[in-house]
């Protein structure tokens, strides 16, 4: 959909009187013109004292940059203090995304300008406003990390592990010791209000989120447990994104930024981590910068084994008879991963840069589960079985990307960026179950399903930022994403122990699927003294085409949607901010939720998509307040989320498949449907408080109403009050030793057909710096009390299920990292406030 032509803003120098523009009129309207002129003259007389005051007031402008790389420092607090009494704040503001700031109106007098940014030293500058010089242009101000030398000891300020802003949370992975040796799942488990379930699906405040990699949507097959934490630089969690972001994601956006260095010369680090019970991790990253060229690359590998236990209690009524399934199992998962990222940055000119990169990875996974099952049907004698469930998976992924950035030195804040990326994914999966032991009447069968999936994604995006004076900006952009997937699923049956596998044609399928999304957006931002306003509109056109062969399901969907966003910010005295934001979003069903393709988890349970499934739409409103007192910060957010056409997974007995199986148990079918409307609202808080020079706590929690729609479609929704809590203690007992102790808790939650039990655990980690900060030794123990387990209850018509699973969560890790070049380990866990900043959600 083409964007409307941009119109040039009205020049600030046009004649106006108190905001009313005067235009010439024809003689026929001379009387009306004269009367309007008198009204304007009277208004001018009434406003003369105010205009006279404004003329005597002054303006202070400047730009904040990072001293190390000359990058802008956005959303940094700038405060103007009275010189005679520095405890009195005259005015304050936040820098824009290009680092610029303006303070006005400022009365004549002497002041002290002070800046505050997480991870940077405080800058102070004396400023004087007089009638002769009402405008002071400070130019470029550069901030650097605070460095103090005590003999041979150097202490450097560092960014905090978790930076909590009003619109987003930033997790600096190198500072979060509790993710060492883990994956992206371990990183997100430490994010306030984020939960990751046993299937690796992340939710924020109970809603699904969109996962991004380096600012670009991740492929729909992307799994968090496949990405090592060692590859991650930081993670941004954006709860109410602006119109610049694609609208997908009910709960917001999680953007994972991968490591890439640009320091001069050779730099990098190598790390090896060993975990208890066969867990091995290796990572290497480096860069080499020569003039206009910067070469960067990284390699990561892991080989991990995980044990687990499961327990299932299930009862169903089929054709008047009650059938019970009691099952317990022990499992072993083996995961291997190899991945590398390589690229080049080239400075075409001082204002233009191009980056070419390739991200290649390959993973293998296998699992084996021994199952003991007792089947009881009616008054018949119980039937005891012993089964082996197994799965094998191979996946390769290639991501090729070209990025371009253009700035204008003579026009600060003006920027053009563009990106084109190609994703190629191939997946082969084998899932099966074999009967090892049972009564003679029960067939010794082995059932196996083979999947072959190919995915190609082509993405392109261009964004342009145009400043509107010193306090405003206009952002526009276009995006296209095309997604193709072809695959096959073959269902095989081995009737006897020594017989060949036979393909069951009536249960074997192929599919084709494609999705195209074209989008355009525009946002405008303007500051009015202590007020800042941003508004935006995004348009997205979606085309879905799918087909399951041989002709068992075909569908086409096309829809155009508009997504408005708005944010209002008010700076308050004493380093405080108040922010109100609104966004409209949607949650598109993924291709496995709409394809009528049966996928068997085992011989008794399968899931199948619904071709008429529609996206769910979300209206989200947030009101946030943030206050900072020296090294203490408190962030409070009230949120409300309304969801229409909510997508729910529904599990029920497939009576036809049960009858055809001829076995004394039953087969369940899981599908997806849209149900009504839900309203969820709650409160979220985050506190960062130093208790001593060597001890700091970061406490966060949320309490919210969890409402789910009735799966019966009768409008009788269920709701409960739930929430999350997290407490991280950061200790620095010596100058070279850092310790973190973290506790997490997630209260019980409702699902469409049941509930999830509470989930909680405690982690501990420490890091000792060695060899004059050329190396670091890390020791970490996850879930030290072994309490993390999953318990799910499901209810539906004639079916009741209770699942308990316990994966290997108590693991000890020992890691060693060596730094070379200008790379250094994190000096200390930041003791400054973790708040500040904010902005407009991207």
Explain what you see.
With 842 residues, this protein is mainly β. Helices cover 5% and strands 63% of the residues. It has four helices and 49 strands. The protein has a 22-stranded antiparallel β-barrel. A six-stranded mixed β-sheet has the order 12-13-19-20-17-18. Strands 5-4-7-8 form a four-stranded antiparallel β-sheet, with no helix packed on it. Strand 21 and strand 22 (279-290) form a beta hairpin. Mean pLDDT is 81; it is low at 1-55, 146-158 and 827-842. InterPro entries: Beta-barrel_TonB_sf (IPR036942), Carb-bd-like_fold (IPR013784), OMP_b-brl_3 (IPR041700), Plug_dom (IPR012910), Plug_dom_sf (IPR037066), TonB-dep_rcpt-like (IPR039426).
| Main β sheet profile | 22 strands, antiparallel, barrel
Estimate the global geometry from the Cα principal axes.
Answer: globular
Oligomer designation: single chain
| Helix/sheet category | mainly beta
Tell me the number of helical segments per DSSP (H or I, 4 or more residues long). 4
Rg is 30 Å
What is the residue-mean pLDDT, rounded to a whole number? 81
Alpha carbon gap, first and last residue: 22 Å
Residue fraction in strands: over 45%
Number of strands: 49
Helical amount: under 10%
Unreliably modeled segments: 1-55, 146-158, 827-842
Membrane topology: Multi-pass membrane protein
Pfam family, one: CarboxypepD_reg
Keywords: Cell outer membrane, Membrane, Receptor, Transmembrane, Transmembrane beta strand, Transport
Domain Outer membrane protein beta-barrel: 411-818
């Amino acid at each position: 959909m083409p964007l409307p032509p941009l119109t040039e803003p009205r020049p600030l120098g046009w004649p106006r009187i108190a905001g009313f523009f005067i235009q010439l009129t024809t003689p026929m309207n001379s009387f009306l013109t004269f009367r309007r002129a008198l009204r304007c003259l009277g208004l001018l007389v009434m406003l003369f004292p105010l205009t006279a005051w404004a003329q005597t007031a002054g303006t202070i402008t400047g730009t904040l940059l990072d001293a190390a790389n000359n990058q802008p420092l956005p959303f940094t607090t700038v405060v103007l203090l009275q010189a005679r009494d520095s405890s009195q704040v005259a005015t304050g503001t936040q820098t824009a995304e290009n680092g610029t700031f303006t303070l006005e109106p400022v009365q004549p007098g002497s002041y002290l300008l002070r800046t505050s940014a997480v991870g940077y030293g405080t800058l102070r500058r004396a400023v004087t406003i007089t009638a002769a010089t009402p405008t002071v242009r400070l130019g470029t101000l550069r901030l650097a990390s605070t460095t103090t030398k005590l003999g041979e000891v150097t202490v450097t300020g560092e960014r905090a592990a978790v930076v909590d802003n009003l619109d987003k949370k930033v997790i600096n992975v190198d500072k979060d010791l509790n993710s060492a040796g883990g994956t992206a799942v371990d990183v997100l488990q430490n994010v306030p209000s984020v939960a990751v379930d046993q299937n690796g699906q992340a939710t924020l405040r109970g809603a699904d989120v969109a996962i991004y990699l380096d600012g670009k949507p991740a492929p729909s097959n992307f799994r968090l447990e496949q990405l090592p934490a060692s590859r991650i630089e930081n993670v941004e969690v954006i709860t109410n994104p602006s119109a610049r972001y694609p609208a997908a994601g009910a709960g917001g956006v999680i953007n994972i930024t991968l490591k890439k260095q640009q320091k001069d010369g050779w730099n990098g680090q190598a790390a090896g981590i060993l975990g208890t019970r066969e867990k091995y991790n290796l990572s290497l990253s480096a860069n080499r910068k020569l003039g206009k060229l910067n070469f960067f690359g990284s390699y990561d590998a892991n080989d991990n084994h995980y044990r687990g236990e499961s327990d299932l209690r299930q009862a169903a009524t089929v054709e008047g008879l009650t059938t019970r399934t009691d099952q317990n199992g022990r499992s072993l998962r083996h995961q291997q991963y190899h991945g590398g990222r390589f690229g080049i940055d080239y400075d075409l000119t001082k204002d233009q840069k191009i980056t070419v990169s390739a991200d290649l990875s390959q993973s293998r996974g296998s699992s084996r589960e021994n199952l003991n099952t007792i089947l009881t049907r009616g008054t018949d004698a119980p039937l005891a079985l012993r089964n082996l469930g197994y799965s094998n998976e191979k996946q390769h992924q290639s991501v090729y990307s070209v990025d371009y950035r253009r700035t204008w030195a003579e026009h600060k804040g003006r920027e053009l960026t563009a990106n084109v990326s190609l994703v190629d994914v191939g997946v082969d999966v084998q899932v099966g179950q074999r009967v090892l032991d049972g009564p003679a009447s029960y067939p010794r069968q082995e059932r196996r399903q083979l999947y072959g999936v190919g995915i190609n994604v082509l993405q392109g995006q261009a964004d342009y930022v145009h400043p509107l004076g010193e306090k405003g900006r206009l952002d526009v952009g276009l995006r296209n994403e095309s997604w193709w997937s072809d695959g096959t699923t073959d269902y095989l049956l081995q009737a006897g122990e020594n017989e060949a596998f036979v393909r069951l044609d009536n249960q074997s399928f192929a599919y084709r699927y494609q999705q195209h999304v074209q989008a355009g957006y525009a946002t405008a931002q303007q500051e009015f003294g202590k007020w800042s306003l941003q508004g935006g509109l995004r348009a997205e056109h979606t085309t879905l085409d799918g087909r399951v062969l041989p002709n068992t399901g075909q569908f086409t969907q096309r829809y155009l949607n508009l997504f408005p966003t708005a944010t209002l910010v008010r700076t308050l005295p004493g380093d405080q901010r108040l922010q109100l934001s609104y966004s409209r979003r949607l949650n598109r069903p993924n291709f496995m939720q709409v394809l009528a393709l049966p996928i068997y988890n085992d011989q008794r349970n399968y899931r199948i998509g619904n071709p008429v499934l529609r996206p769910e739409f979300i209206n989200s409103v947030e009101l946030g307040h943030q206050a900072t007192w020296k090294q203490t910060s408190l962030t409070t957010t009230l949120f409300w989320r309304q969801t229409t056409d909510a997508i729910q997974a529904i599990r029920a007995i497939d009576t036809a498949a049960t009858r055809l199986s001829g076995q004394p148990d039953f087969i369940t079918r899981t599908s997806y449907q849209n149900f009504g409307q839900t309203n969820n609202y709650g409160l979220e808080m985050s506190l960062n408080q130093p208790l001593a020079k060597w001890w700091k706590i970061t406490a966060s929690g949320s309490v919210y109403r969890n409402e789910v729609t009735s799966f019966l479609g009768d409008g009788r929704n269920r709701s409960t009050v739930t929430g999350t809590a997290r407490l991280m203690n950061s200790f620095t007992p010596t100058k070279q030793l850092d310790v973190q102790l973290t506790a997490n808790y997630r209260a019980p939650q409702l699902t469409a057909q049941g509930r999830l039990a509470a989930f909680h655990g405690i982690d501990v980690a420490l890091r000792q710096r060695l060899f004059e900060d050329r190396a670091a030794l890390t020791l970490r123990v996850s879930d030290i009390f072994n309490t993390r387990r999953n318990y799910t209850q499901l209810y539906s018509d004639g079916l009741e299920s209770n699942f308990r699973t316990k994966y290997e969560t108590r693991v000890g890790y020992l890691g060693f990292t060596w730094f070379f070049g200008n790379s250094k380990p994190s000096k200390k866990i930041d003791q400054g406030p973790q708040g500040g900043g904010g902005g407009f959600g991207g």
